[in-house]
Amino acid sequence: MAPIDPPPPVTHETSDVSIGGIVKFGIGLAAAAILVHVAIFGYFRALEAHDRKQNEPVSPLVSASLRRTPPEPRLEPDPLAPRRRMRASEDAVLTTYGWVDRNAGVARIPIARAMDLLVERGLPVTKPVTPVPTPTMLVGKRETGNGKR
Description:
The chain is 50% helix and 5% strand. The protein is mainly α. It has a domain at 96-123. A hairpin with a 4-residue loop joins strand 1 and strand 2 (106-108). The longest helix is centred in the N-terminal third of the chain and has 36 residues, at 19-54. The protein starts with 18 loop residues before the first helix and ends in an 11-residue tail after the last helix.
């Protein structure tokens, strides 16, 4: 029998795997993970600061107004719409010509035009108004029981 040769030493294939590439990839992966964690930490800090700003205590007037607001769901999708409609109708009355009472001959004119006419013509002259006697005016003139004032 012939002697058996010892097996060749076990080593890795140097042409298939690059140890340097694996180490560089691991270092890059760790750096990317650290960068992502720092970015997320900063993002959460910004959100926390925004939340603190939103939850600042409000003035008593604002808090009273918030208590008057009914809870959700509200019946009107736009609660300011009636106020806007009313304001538009008031502005239309105040800035246009129109009849108040056609039979009596009473009309309305825009406020700007009325002010211009008042500047041109002046205020109408009226007779002086005599004051109506009030109980406080009569206190000093009251007769007493002994004939003295």
